[in-house]
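Exercise: predict the fold of this chain.
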Amino acid sequence: MPAKVVLKVTDGSLKGTEYIFTERTTCIIGRGVDCNPRLPDDKDHSTISRHHCLLDINPPGMRVRDFGSLNGTFVNGKKIGQRDRNLAHKEALKAKFPEYDLKDGDTIRLGSTVFQVVVSAAPVCSICSKEINGPEAENLPPKDGQYICATCKVNKTPEAPSSIKKDAGTEIKHCTNCGKEFSAKLDDSEILCVSCLENPLQLIKQDESGDTVIINGYKIISELGKGGMGAVYLAEQTATGRKVALKVMLSSAAVNDRAREMFLREVENTKHLKHRNVVGLIDYGNSQGTFFFTLEYCEGGSVDRIMVRQGGKLPVAEATDIILQALDGLIYAHNIKIPNVKLTNGSTITINGLVHRDIKPSNIFYTETSQGRVAKIADFGLGKAFDAAGLSGYTRTGSAAGTPVFMARQQVINFKYSKPEADVWAMAATYYFLLTGRFPRDFPKGKDPWYIVLQTSCIPIQKRNPAIPEKLAGVIDMALIDRPEITFKTAEAFKCALEDVL
């Protein structure tokens, strides 16, 4: 029973229509031809703006934001975000419209069209916080308003770890890692306390000296970064001495089915990508209850850090070399065959092409080789098989849907159905940033970044940096057109256009 959000039209000419969202996405409701959900451009919907409001959905969570519409958006009967009638639509950019969280049963009204929010979420065990899915959820009614999963029932775990008592017929359980009374169970052999759930490295055996943490033959050297779902470490493969980037799933996320699915999805996406200009997967597995995978370590770091070291922007030759290589990686990813993509009905298919959906300087790394500097695209964790959009049943959790400053308006309008051209636009925006140290659009403080992406055009690059050759500037400006559509539909077309003027 995966989480989903349904917008059901309960009043208006579209009554009975349902819009179903099962994964992380942003989308726009309005009369515009590029909106989804799109409302008819007719008399019944004449009070609804072309781009009326934005939905930011991460099932079971959902938010709505009015986009400075003329007649406003109503949430549970309360008007939000309407612009002053004396202001032109573009003037609404100067206003800041807040987001409103929505819950099951809430209503959104645009003109005479009323949507009811219906949220379906997997129940969560009140003891171990694990999501309860499938038949188990249907057969486990809540006890005193709280669900208890089958595992915790079998183990006769009380409602809170701190209240564990030795009663007749109740077996006291202890953390298999540190000996404390347990609060969660990952599998039949690993029973873990809260403290061990919060730090994946506490679960991993140390070497004989007791000083070095070893994960499946990889020695931890230092931490490179940590997010809400995983931590990344610089590690050394003990058998070869090779340096790798080791990503470990935080154990506290391991009991969350959606977080685990997202982590394993990154493994699935990355293991198929074998190209000189894509950060490659080396190994993956489960060590003592902790999911991990290792990637090529790019000692040069990410491109945005190179920029900082070089004063905030890069020379044309250096930036161009990075982008051309990254485009080769993108061409490869957009055309790769991905086997065994699981559909919501349980069947599998082979699809063609993976869209990254978050191309930006911090996701392009470089490493030095005997042939020179090699640029590599990283982090296909947000990637989506574009010709199976809406079918795979994957749910994103714990991260923003891309980065708006490097995002085309088409991706804001419908993140879920992003096509390869959205990556091409983001690569052009990244090129622009490398050459100027500025984003293609201005994002003034206090103004809605999503609205800016939707309603404004990019600033010609020579206004940022007059030293950029005119022909090159022309191609970059052309690549950053996204109204009414993106100019370059493929990474190969953009690369060819660059090579023609270089």
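Check your answer against the key: Residues 303-501 form a domain with the Transferase(Phosphotransferase); domain 1 fold (CATH 1.10.510.10).
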